[in-house]
Amino acid sequence: MEVLERCGYGFGFNLSEGLGVLDSSKVKRLFKPSLSWLLVFVPVAVALRFWSQPRNETALFVCSCLAVIPLAGWMGRATEELAERLGHGVGGLLNATFGNAAELIIALIALSKGLTGVVKASIAGSIIGNVLLVMGVSILGGGLRFREQRFNQTAARASATTLSLAAVALTIPTVFHVTAAGHSGGWSLETEQKLSLAIAFVLFVTYACLLSFELITHKQLYAIDSTDDSEVGKRAEGWSVFKSLLVLIVATSLVALMSEFLVGAVEAARSALGLTEVFVGVILIAVIGNAAEHSTAVMMAMKNKMGISIGIAVGSSLQIALFVAPVLVFSSYLFGRPMDLEFTLPEVVAVIVAVQLIFQISSDGETNWLEGVQLLSVYLILGILFFYLPERTEAG
Amino acid sequence: MEVLERCGYGFGFNLSEGLGVLDSSKVKRLFKPSLSWLLVFVPVAVALRFWSQPRNETALFVCSCLAVIPLAGWMGRATEELAERLGHGVGGLLNATFGNAAELIIALIALSKGLTGVVKASIAGSIIGNVLLVMGVSILGGGLRFREQRFNQTAARASATTLSLAAVALTIPTVFHVTAAGHSGGWSLETEQKLSLAIAFVLFVTYACLLSFELITHKQLYAIDSTDDSEVGKRAEGWSVFKSLLVLIVATSLVALMSEFLVGAVEAARSALGLTEVFVGVILIAVIGNAAEHSTAVMMAMKNKMGISIGIAVGSSLQIALFVAPVLVFSSYLFGRPMDLEFTLPEVVAVIVAVQLIFQISSDGETNWLEGVQLLSVYLILGILFFYLPERTEAG
Amino acid sequence: MEVLERCGYGFGFNLSEGLGVLDSSKVKRLFKPSLSWLLVFVPVAVALRFWSQPRNETALFVCSCLAVIPLAGWMGRATEELAERLGHGVGGLLNATFGNAAELIIALIALSKGLTGVVKASIAGSIIGNVLLVMGVSILGGGLRFREQRFNQTAARASATTLSLAAVALTIPTVFHVTAAGHSGGWSLETEQKLSLAIAFVLFVTYACLLSFELITHKQLYAIDSTDDSEVGKRAEGWSVFKSLLVLIVATSLVALMSEFLVGAVEAARSALGLTEVFVGVILIAVIGNAAEHSTAVMMAMKNKMGISIGIAVGSSLQIALFVAPVLVFSSYLFGRPMDLEFTLPEVVAVIVAVQLIFQISSDGETNWLEGVQLLSVYLILGILFFYLPERTEAG
Predict the structure, then answer these.
(1) What is the mean pLDDT of residues C138-146?
(2) How much is the pLDDT for B393?
(3) Using 50, 70 and 90 to split pLDDT, how confident is the model at B244?
(4) Best of B153, B171, B172 to mutate (most C CBs within 10 Å, chain C)
(5) Which stretches of chain B sit within 8 Å of chain C by CB?
(6) Residues above pLDDT 90, as percent of chain A
(7) Rounded distance, CA C252 to CA A151, Å?
(8) A346, C213: Cβ pair inside 8 Å?
(9) Is C168–A380 a contact, with Cβ atoms under 8 angstroms apart?
């Protein structure tokens, strides 16, 4: 929950779940060209949306996807700058709440248009994307430079166990559906929604407990890597509260606009590209929404700070499962289109597999390149599965 | 397998799977008021059964449930006093065999009345109740007083792995049913029963091996916590063999009587309360049958003896899965109503989830309060699932 | 990937996945009588096949099964002698590729005759046979002589995690079938085969990465046990390249001949013995194909070299899952009868269970006899399941 230090015009990363301090100048030089130039797609998307005739939905979808990536980064950066000004407790809470704000906004807009299938797929996809893809690339990247990389086991285990809990919670509604469908009373959508609402509530409370653990009772477990960091002196260069708020508001508005375009064009685009709803949700939207975390986690791993890298990737998965998913369930009632937490069998299997593998890999407190390859292989195999799955006729 | 030392009139706890020695006077003062006064429900239940007109089945069910709790405690106490007199080997065996005698009696009576569904649900419920609820409250309670609690990993791992084996064994008949139903030969009840009988036999032999491991070849793994206990001197105050046998006979008879009432009233009571068969079995009966273990495990955790606490809770689960379940299968043939070991999908999922979580939490040899919250969250989520599940039409 | 040293006429063991050096003279004396005399079944099988009238298919099946066991051992021996002459890198590759050649030959011949069900069952059976039966007997055997046996955790964990990946890969086509069957597009055999082909390719690449890890980047992890071995001086007694090649060619030809008999007689034999296809594949063929590994692994465990023992058993499972299975899928296209990787539910469950248990048991770096009993119990329970399963009407 440390704050990143960079010069005022650098590119921001969502480090809400990260634990350390970047040495800013190198980062800026390294990453600015690779992500910030994507901001050019913001005006391109606007142009495509309002002035192109006939409207090219696929191009609009691609451009708004690409535009979300750097905007999510700016939102993360602004959140962290603000968090620093507000002090450890409130700041940590802010980070923990707005860390996946971009994904939340996309999902909320999709939800308001009734795309429940895509939203649920993107929840599952964010979890496996962070755990398998982001972690896999990080461990492989780090492992190619360092023979072995070590990290604090206790913190990694606490996260992995909470992730198992989340996987259980997201499995139960599916178990309910399968079982209830074969019983005399039969399955009813209403009971499914009540069940999901109750589970969402339990997850939300668990998230509050996890935050207390991380921010209050056991905060030193999460602070190990940052104390001996030589870059702390640069903290003075941070943004003012006003600047942070301004960037946050502008970036959030633009993310909302791009999400509006993205969600509006998704149906037309995916039929043009021949992709199924579940593939778009599980793979595409999940990768886009987590691109900023992705680059930061990989960079940390390359610097042999594997603990921070795992903290970012697993922490982001946890935030999706324990905070974003319940908030989406609660919000769906405001839209008048209740969303349950029943996932399809492949989504459930994918989440269970991802959680089990990250537990196996993180429980010994060290990683090597082969473990990165293993995570990526599983991600690839799951990606192949979702690619070949035919369109589903009804949710679940 | 140590023997508890308490003054002659204190309340007894089932410590059959426990490893340590209580300091008696405090215990007595702490717990006597909370459990022993429940004995008042023995005469109340008798009165309700024989003299109330018209009979209130719900009240009878509730009273006999409450009456079983202290009686189960007295049975455990008497078993342990007797075990002490008979020496380590025979005594350990006695404890291991009669440790869950109250649950066994309830289940046998239910079995003789053909309530196979409730019996199987209570087997699954006892396992998850001990592993998630008892362990969860213990770890949370201990964790609120102590930052970190440590215990012997090897013993905890041996138990967790045996529990995994048990989970596999209880899953196989369900896998058989699902697979066989789709094959040409088809599924037949007879084959299901043969399969269950063979599995019950394997479990029973494995239990014998586990006892040899705990009581003979690796007994020092289980004796660590008790040797340095300062209360050993109080052992002289124990019961005589005669007194132990007398208490055992009286308590067992009363448990049998209360179980008779309980089982007789369960059908009427649960329809009055609007609860399903599986909810009653998995949650209610399991909690009642394990209340004594529950209070002891929590108390041990509060005293920072987490090893004993885990030993009690996981040991009780093991005893249910490897001893009580096979004995019930064997007994069902005596009643002429063979019981198979086929569980419903939610029961199987619940057991697998519980076993996986306790493995994750116990494998690092330390606990903190968050892990208690995690176990309780999962118990709550499973409880919600069982609450919303509609009544099943046929077993399995 | 070390080379075994034995006198010229001793019996060879397939140590392709083994890591150490046997002390030859004792081994020869101990094992020659128990396996080499099985070579007598080679001429017996030939006689039964060509001269007995009417042909007794069951006797032919049994004899050719028994004849394969020592031949597989000789193939392994010759491969290793050759590997030694070719140096560490190429030799390691040779071992890794031909280590399960006997099983590969049996499977290829079965595949060419369209026995896809048996082939897939034998893949699953080899994995669980190595992990549960071979490991179980080894740990139990070693544990009866030594109180605790320790081994290198990092190597064991890398193998266990790769095995988890393999289990995931072999589960996915089944998940695909179940899910796709319920969707609008429906399930098609063609998509299933494409999916399986893609997964086979990922597994194959992962195997190449695993070999690089074991033979190149982290080879010292796998070399710990062999360096301090006092038998290294006997290495001079090894075979010449010519002799190795000659033995390899003769043994391979005979294995192919025996496999031809075995596969030709399997259908008639199993109906005569009343066994199902899946039981023959999962239990019988898997045990026969792995008998040589089996004896070596147990012997190593009895000598307190548990690391080598685990290396052999888990390594053989990995080779089956990541090398033999993909090669069979690729080869099936040459035969014009494409094989997919869709396993039946019991096969999938068996593999997942085996992998989970070996992870739990190997992750703490020590074993005791109870863990051996646990693995064998689970193998027995799975064997009971496969024994009682009725014949399946269609694949999957």
Answers:
(1) 91
(2) 52
(3) confident
(4) B172
(5) 153-154, 157-158, 160-162, 164-165, 168-169, 171-172, 175-176, 178-180, 182-187, 191, 194-195, 198-199, 202-203, 205-206, 209-210, 213, 217-218, 359, 363
(6) 20
(7) 48
(8) no
(9) no
| A154 with B370: Cβ contact below 8 A | no
Question: In this model, does residue C349 exceed pLDDT 90?
Answer: yes
Tell me what the mean pLDDT of segment B262-289 comes to. Answer: 82
pTM: 0.84
Asked whether the predicted pLDDT for residue C18 surpasses 50, the reply is no
Instruction: Give ipTM to 2 decimals.
Output: 0.82
Q: What is the pLDDT of residue C1?
A: 32
Gap from A149 CA to chain B (nearest CA, Å) = 20
- CB contact (8 A) between residue A183 and residue B392: yes
What confidence tens digit (pLDDT) does each residue in A267-276 have?
Answer: 888 888 888 8
Those residues whose C-beta lies under 8 Å from the C-beta of residue A333, and which sit 6 or more positions away, are: none
CA dist B72 and B259 (Å) reads 11
What is the pLDDT, as a whole number, of residue A32? 47
Q: How much is the pLDDT for A215?
A: 81
- SS3 letters for chain A? CCCCCCCCCCCCCCCCCCCCCCCHHHHHHHHHHHHHHHHHHHHHHHHHHHCCCCCCHHHHHHHHHHHHHHHHHHHHHHHHHHHHHHCHHHHHHHHHHHCCHHHHHHHHHHHHCCCHHHHHHHHHHHHHHHHHHHHHHHHHHHHHHCCCEECCHHHHHHHHHHHHHHHHHHHHHHHHHHHHHCCCCCCCHHHHHHHHHHHHHHHHHHHHHHHHHHHHHCHHHHCHHHHCCHHHHHHHHCCCHHHHHHHHHHHHHHHHHHHHHHHHHHHHHHHHHCCCHHHHHHHHHHHHHCHHHHHHHHHHHHCCCHHHHHHHHHHHHHHHHHHHHHHHHHHHHHCCCCCCCCCCHHHHHHHHHHHHHHHHHHCCCEECHHHHHHHHHHHHHHHHHHHHCCCCCCCC
Q: Kindly list the partner chains of chain C, i.e. chains with 3 or more CB atom pairs below 8 Å.
A: A, B
Given a contact as 3+ CB pairs under 8 Å, which chains touch A?
Answer: B, C
Q: Which residues of chain A have a CB within 8 Å of the CB of B384?
A: 172, 195, 198-199, 202
Rounded to a whole number of angstroms, the distance from the CA of B102 to the nearest CA of chain C is: 28
On the question of pLDDT at B227 being above 60, the answer is no
Residue A51's region, left for phi above 0, alpha for psi from -120 to 50, else beta, is alpha
Pair of tokens at residue B303: 């005293």
Local confidence band at C87 (pLDDT 50, 70, 90 cut-offs)? low
Percent share of chain C, pLDDT over 90: 20
Lowest-pLDDT range, A221-230, B367-376, C219-228? A221-230
- Cβ-defined contact of A206 to B369 (cutoff 8 Å): no
What is residue A379's predicted lDDT score, i.e. its pLDDT? Answer: 94
Using the beta-carbon criterion (under 8 Å), do C364 and B153 form an inter-chain contact?
Answer: yes
Q: Among A183, A184, A209, whose Cβ lies nearest the Cβ of B373?
A: A209
- Mean pLDDT of all residues belonging to chain A: 79
Chain A residues with CB-CB distance to B368 below 8 A: 158, 213, 218
Res. C252: pLDDT tops 70: yes
- From the list B129, B179, B378, A316, the residue with the least C-alpha distance to C396 is B179
> Would you call A168 and B368 a contact, using CB atoms and an 8 Å cutoff?
no
The two structure tokens encoding residue A109: 């807009």
Tell me the pLDDT tens digit for each residue of A160-189: 888 999 999 999 999 998 888 877 667 788
CB contact under 8 A, B178 and C345: yes
Contacts of A171 in chain B (CB under 8 A): 349
Burial A42-75 (b: 16+ CB within 10 A, else e): bebbbebbeeeeeebbebbbbbbbbbbbbbbbbb
